[in-house]
Amino acid sequence: MSLEYAARLRRIPSYPVAQTYEFGGELAKLASNETPFAPHPAVLEAIEAQVRTLNRYPDPSKARLREKIAGRLGVPAGTVAIGNGSCELLFAAADALLEPGAELVYAWPSFSVYPQLAAQSGARAIEVPLDSEHRHDLEAMAREVTVATRMVLVCNPNNPTGTALPLDEIDAFIGSLPRHVAVLLDEAYVEFNTLQDPDSSLPLLQKHANLVLLRTFSKVYGLAGLRVGYAIGPESFRAAVDQVRQPFSVSTLAQAGAIEALRHVDELERRVERTVIERVGMEDELADRGLAHAESQANFSWVSLGDRDEDEVMAALAKRGVIVRGGKSLGAEGFIRVTYGTAEENRRFLAALDAAL
Question: What is the pTM of this model?
């Protein structure tokens, strides 16, 4: 007799993980929007210093990390929630806010986790197509909000397209929505966005009591392997997501690494500068090849393949040791998403792309 699983399991889409290919050499891993730069040496030292304490559970309140984030951003510590990556906070928000009969609104294509939130909670997902420039269509999204809407997700810059909206448009959008609707502004790539200073969205928290900002240490901080994310919003939101999560979800090493990483803003600025240089160069190279791409404000490009077969292009890149993400798995067939790596990795990608085309 086979096990009987919950009916909702059939509704939950699998997260489209980057494929791994057999290759007899070093891979250029440009599929997961990771930074190519290792953690700051002081961050590694802080992590190593905690290794001998691993017989003890981590602090379930994440008190020191919450205080450091609060001090860095000038917000009350009680408004900061810490998660095992921002993904855990998204799932916890869905557990706390969504249920059968509720509605969730988000743009599409966007972050691949979003469809799972409604499927797991039994809520109704409303996907609003991006506009012709691969950006969120905020007016169309606002028209989909009803009395049943509990949550609206705005990914800015958007993953997988890299496009970003000016904050004044997001401000007006939030102000147009009913107060019962929680707006989660997903800013995983905000440090790479040249349209705004990363701290520019913080004043919106004072203006909109239904706003939550989501951020992560996985991208520019280079701590993807440790999984640390955080949210800033109403204290009631922090209490709600803490209530529905397991108590020890962020490891001692992750908390120590994130605390130390906050001390090295100058290193972040260098990484952003180097990434933007690679972004500009990559976009020029793509244009020279006649490939259209979205206007990125992140650390990746969303590239149209035109009438070329996506699977064939992906296979040809993989054959040459270059891994990117195909648009089919991200919500739009006929595209690839390529992360900006080191200058050498980017040259490898372009050479492999020339061969693939």
Answer: 0.94
